[in-house]
TrEMBL record:
Motif ('KMSKS' region): 280-284
Name of the protein this chain belongs to: Cysteine--tRNA ligase
E.C. designation(s): 6.1.1.16
UniProt cross-references to Pfam families, sorted A to Z: tRNA-synt_1e
Catalytic activity field: tRNA(Cys) + L-cysteine + ATP = L-cysteinyl-tRNA(Cys) + AMP + diphosphate
Residues spanned by motif 'HIGH' region: 29-39
GO MF term set: ATP binding; cysteine-tRNA ligase activity; zinc ion binding
Gene3D superfamilies xrefs: Cysteine-tRNA ligase, C-terminal anti-codon recognition domain, HUPs
Gene Ontology biological process terms in this record: cysteinyl-tRNA aminoacylation
Main location: cytoplasm
Amino acid sequence: MKIFNTFSRNIQELSPQNPPVVTFYACGPTVYDHTHLGHLRTFTNNDLLKRALTMLGYKIHHVMNITDVGHLTGDTDEGEDKLEKGALKAGKTVWEVADYYTKQFIFSLKELNIIESDELPKATDHIQDMITLIKKLEEKGFTYKTEEAIYFDISKFTDYGKLSGQKIEDKIQKSRDEVHIDSNKKHPADFALWFFTVGRFKDHVMRWDFGSAQGFPGWHIECSAMSMKYLGETIDIHAGGIDHIPVHHENEIAQSEAATGKPFVSIWFHSAFLNIEGQKMSKSLGNFYRIEDLQEKGVSPQALRYLYLQTHYRQPMNFTFEAAGAATSAFNNLKEMVLALKKQTQRTVLSTDKLGQLDEYRTQFLSALQNDLQIPQALAVMWSMLKSNIPSEDKYDLALEFDQVLGLGLATFEEETIPEEIVELAKKRLEARNEKEFEKSDELKKEILEKGYSIEDTSDSFIIKKK
Ligand code: AMP
Ligand code: ZN
């Protein structure tokens, strides 16, 4: 399997430390607001990678964290606490807010048929692991303390910036415009490992003991502490959105490698943004839609997943309702086709020619996956296979096999049962039509439409479909 590695800037062969196991850490959500379609694009891409690796024979050990301790509104150390801000807005406690949005997040993943991670650790359940790691960094001389916080001293980590390729001087340049609240911070890019509940944080609700003082962790330390705890000191693949490259992941590398002296990650897998009108869909910009918003407009979670499948994970994707509508039609066509195949259960003996064709489609599908997870290409192979002349039952079987990666739930497709009431209305309409009572027939058709079904006439009967 070849994957683009943000770190090497190359498409490279995955070579796990203990094959067939692949250790896979994904940065999870900060649960202070709704899960939106942007997050879900990244989590769907992670799911596709995981499913593809599984099809290729690997055993994935997947950990995803829940950031339920509110990191500050920017990626840097400034701003307000996101969870406290969210709690204030909702009139709830920080714990209630985190719990509510965690549940909503998990529900959204299920709706999209995203396979659960093996562990879903919460930051608040791992404060002691973070403290232990911070103490280790203190002992090794990578930190300094101010009244407000314990900082990681980036000048002590010579490789700082190696993931994004930023030079420290550029970081200084970029940060000059920022307001520095802690005047005792030595370098603008130094980042907090731990904040003390003093000064601007004196009323902070979430707080834990650290020695004789109280405080709360900085954001980045949780991912290092939890990934090491569950997956060991070096991880095969670490995933997240591209927004995490310059700060969060850079900081994760610095603190992890400083603590262990070992490489933190072999392959960095980053998903490009889901944009809307040219801007990143985000909580802070308030330009986001949720799964529920789409459902109200007739776009199902499966159709959304289909929409995601159409763009390669490294390409930015622009969200429009028009595109979501087109994905819905394509998904419905696929569903009809698969259901028609499911009905045709007559197994025929395959000629060597057709067997060869089956193998060819399988090979094309796998090589699309192996080539940096080319899911749009894999989806195209699925369509060519479905339109080919191989026997229906074999097409059906192969479609289900491909769907182990695509995750559209093809095996669960069922013929819609039409309610008796609608069938009765349709029968009455047919009678009216046969009696040439066209006004009555039109009224009945209207009633059927209003109840959410469409009716098509055939020469002597009708076909009812759910709209
Ligand atoms: P957050 O809760 O902001 O930390 O985001 C959780 C995950 O979703 C991270 O991996 C982000 O990079 C990713 N993410 C957030 N917004 C978008 C977006 N518009 N498009 C793609 N991924 C996103
Ligand atoms: Zn992280």
